[in-house]
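INPUT
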Amino acid sequence: MPHEAPSTIALVGNPNAGKTTLFNALTGSNQQVGNYSGVTVSLTAGETFTPHGKKLRVLDLPGCYSLRASSPDEQVTIDALEGRIPGHAKPDLVVCVADASNLERHLSLVLQVIERGFPCVLALNMVDAAEKSGLRLDPQKLSEELGIPVVPIQANAGKGIVQLKQALRHPFPNAAEPVWKTPDADPDASRQAFIRDLCALAARRPDVHQQTTSDRLDALLLHPIYGWIIFLGVMFVVFWAIFSFASVPMGWIESLQGLLAGWVENSMAEGDLRSLIVDGVIAGVGGVIIFLPQIILLFLFIGLLESSGYMARAAFLMDGVMARAGLSGKAFLPLFSSYACAIPGVMATRTIGSAKERLVTIFIAPWMSCSARLPVYFLIVPMLLHEQEGSWKQALVLFAIYALGTLTAFLVAKVLRKRLGPDAGSHFMLEMPPYRPPQWSYILRHVTDRSWSFVKNAGTLILGLSILLWALSTYPKHDGDDPSEALAHSAIGRIGAVIEPVVQPLGFDGRTGTAILTSFAAREVFNSSMAILFRVEETDDDVKTRSLIRDRVAAAKRPDGTPLFTPLSLISLLVFYIYALQCLPTSAVVAREAGSWKWAIGQFLFMSGFAYFASLAVYQTGRLLGF
Amino acid sequence: MSWQTYTAIAIVTLTLLIFLIRFARPKKSGHCGHGCGCDKKHE
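OUTPUT
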């Protein structure tokens, strides 16, 4: 029996219509979803089965408002529908996904898909929310008027999925006739008139002036004054909670690390292997893993804000601020994503239609402090303030760090936008989703994915670099007993001596310079390097103290006996990490998205140079002022 | 040299080899490399 290729169906719809949620429900996948537009910027494929066991290939396409190709992600959708994407067949059927409570807006794209002659099924998503808001839906009438099957669904709860799969059975429905099209009339006007009449028949609102809970909340959360106060308050509470709630599990990890190191020391005779395990592996990997609770909390809060619908409001508030930097509100979501990781942030710039604005957004995205910088901040901020000063002060410093990176990014964006010159204006249209209870299953999956990635990185890249760094700080061996002399004699000691003149004007010694150098592969390696390089400062046998890199680093002295890290040198170090671009995968993605390595290399050189000179200016100005 | 030194040097050499092999291996393009947990594998 000849093997029959599975039919291809494509999920098409406006941003935030729930396409990816439906894709996950159909295919059992775990693609990222969010209660804001622009989460999907590239094509994703999966497989599902009809009730009769026939295999179907499902394409999840980026959300778009029209089929005019005004931005790179809309172009992806059109190319996929026309079968122009290598490796993906032209869809045999298009499933239009529409938010039932916003049918007036979402139907325009459905009509455009029908006009292009695609066989089509309409999945009416979020019918629960629509009916709760008082909308009286008549799917039967919609189906009759549009000439296509209409299936009410609630993708996040898996409701209506079986009925939708029934509609995906062979033979697929024929392409419908676009009855609204008239030869002389403007196509947009014809569609709007048809949609108005259709909604009056099949999606009636009992009272057009009725205020929903979301409307009432928006009156407060989007208020020009109270909205900003709440926004800043929410951000501050997130940072405060990260510092205060994480301290207990961090203490457990520290104790565990100390116990493990103590157990190895008691079980093994003194030697290189024991040193490698205790001072290289446990100290190096532990120096990064200890910050896992804070990373988990950060992603939990980001997930909560996204899922509840508040993130779209934050984007709306920020639109005015973005305009001052020469950017539109469209740049907010890519930039906000960059706080988690610059890579999805850079990829999310595909939603920006203007090429110049997109390049500028890509250029500044790595200055949004990503989660990889957090371990470094969490190491330095408590040293700067002393732990007993309270979580709220640490949260305030962290808030200032994020604000500094963001403000500098906006200033550079403004300069760049002026240099690149004006372009055809791009319109910012943001889907304002209704407020919803958090979708815990997706939030927890998102948190687990990110946290596992962090742990995996610690178990592979950080582990490997810790072993190599231990070797560089141990060999060639020195005959004497003085650990400082042994370190100076080692390879890393010699590298540090070469680097020291370069980093000394910033307030650092050769060891810190070496740790910075190693962190150009990945920022969090800085902590491992510091833990390994400062092991010679260990003076007592207390198991718990040995595990705390912060204690070791804080106790480090210069050759003249003065403390190595003063508040000024710590601020200088923070400034360096706010600005330096130390992430090779980000540079690779920038080169791909910008279409040239020149942009990636230019960005790396600019940001590294900026970090160096900003840190230099901070330290030298501070010294002149007597700090 | 003690057995501990031999073992430590062997582990360091093996780590270095793994790094060199990974560095020399051709990279797959089209995604971020999944290093940051930002997405799942895209087809």
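end of record. The first helix of chain A runs from residue 19 to 27.
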